[in-house]
Amino acid sequence: MKVSVRAVSALVAVTGILLVVLFVPSKSTSWPEIRIAVSETPLSAPLIIASSNGYFQKHDLKIKLIKARGGVNCMQMLLNDEVDLATTSDSVVMFTRFERDDFGVLTSFAESDNDVKILTLAASPDSTSPALENGTAGVVIDSASEFFLDAYMAMEGMNTRGIEKRGYQPHKLGEALLRKEVDYIAVWEPYSYMLSRDYPDRVFSYETRGINNLHFLLSHRTDENGESTIDREVSVRVIDALEEANRFISLYPGKAKKLVADFLSMPEAQLAYLWSDYTFRLTISDAMFLSLTMQANWAIGSGKTSRAEPPDFRDLFASSPLLPHVPANQASQ
Predict the structure, then answer these.
(1) How far, in Å, CA of 166 to CA of 163, rounded?
(2) Which pTM was predicted?
């Protein structure tokens, strides 16, 4: 059988093309590692599960979770360029927006109407609720802790100006209460549960469920044009991974709680006690806008800012994959 030179040349050419196609590196894995500051709270569950179950990796993302104590510290790490994304409460976002606009929000991913608690020392195990007015309160300044205390007092018809506030890191609030440096503290989970568990006859918890629906957000930096410093395709893949994590939470709550408890070094019984207080979903909702605006008006009225008007929060979400993409400089037009 004779084979022509032309046929051999054609075969070599086709083989070469196939080799080039097969060995061209994929562009989908070329993104740099994304560092995420994660608050040490069960509210961070979707991120923890997306990392533990390999959902980020499935979407060709290299993600590093960095633990931090509370959303204030997470936001500071973001603004210091120590991380690329950060978990923060809506209160932290509101306070920070009064000061600067070089950050935005990809999504709200968790909610709770019972995460922040107000605690005091009880005179006896069966003592009634002591009055909050005219005391000293320990709070995390410019956070959900501080807003929540004022919101509760306003709902109860108390004078919020009659209480002195002292700022602490969240993990130091319990110590301040037990040492009687303050009369009350406003603190989020898991710190509230730990205090009530360890000192059941000394710590009194006020009934505060439903006072405020806290939103937990995933924040990013923006450039001089107001666009996210995170590639939009990366943001979309982060959202997809979190969606998978939320499905896992819904389908396998027991396994989800174990993963979160292991990551937070928290007893599973403690997490099981808190779990029903949380709702995990990805959303940019009207309720969240209203909450941000309400908190901003509170900050103005209480003298927390010199600004006379709330910020325009619509620009915050210009880069969110949950919304149609509109250039940031047109978002509020």
Answers:
(1) 10
(2) 0.81
